[in-house]
Amino acid sequence: MTTKDEDIAAVAAADTCRYQAMIDGDAAHLHALLHEKFYYTHFSGWSEGKVSYIDRIRAGKVTYRNVRTANVVTDIYGDTAIMHGRMWMDVFVVDEQREVPIDN
To answer: Between vectors from CA 15 to CA 47 and to CA 41, what angle results, nearest 5°?
Structure first.
């Protein structure tokens, strides 16, 4: 049995891996990391499921750079973790040929 601190550290490590896989465009790693019911909500409010999200990254339609986080708090509820905090990311949308700075 793990402690709460160990669980929080494991969630933080998995989140770091997810961001790195996004930056690397590593579709296989993202597929392994993300739950089958994963949905990604973009800054515009548009949401997409796991397959579509990974396919867009695999196809190079979007590239992620310079992910930074601050003030992240992780709450553990049984086998579920909820993370909230601040995140900045530089995103390049290939179809639109534009850089999108994200500040969430």
So the answer is: 10
Q: Could you tell me if 4 and 76 are in contact, meaning their C-beta atoms sit under 8 angstroms apart?
A: yes
Closest alpha carbon to 4 in 90, 80, 99, 84? 80
Count of Cβ atoms closer than 10 Å to residue 26 Cβ: 18
pLDDT in tens, 40-94: 888 778 899 999 999 999 999 999 998 999 999 999 999 899 999 999 999 999 8
Please tell me the distance from the alpha carbon of residue 19 to that of residue 22, in angstroms, as a whole number.
5
Question: Which residues have a Cβ under 8 Å from the Cβ of 17 and sit 6 or more positions away?
Answer: 29, 33
- Quickly list DSSP for 14-46: HHHHHHHHHHHT-HHHHHHHS-TT-EEE-TTS-
Q: What's the sign of the alpha-carbon dihedral 54, 71, 88, 65?
A: negative
Specify the pairing of strand 62-77 against strand 98-103: unpaired
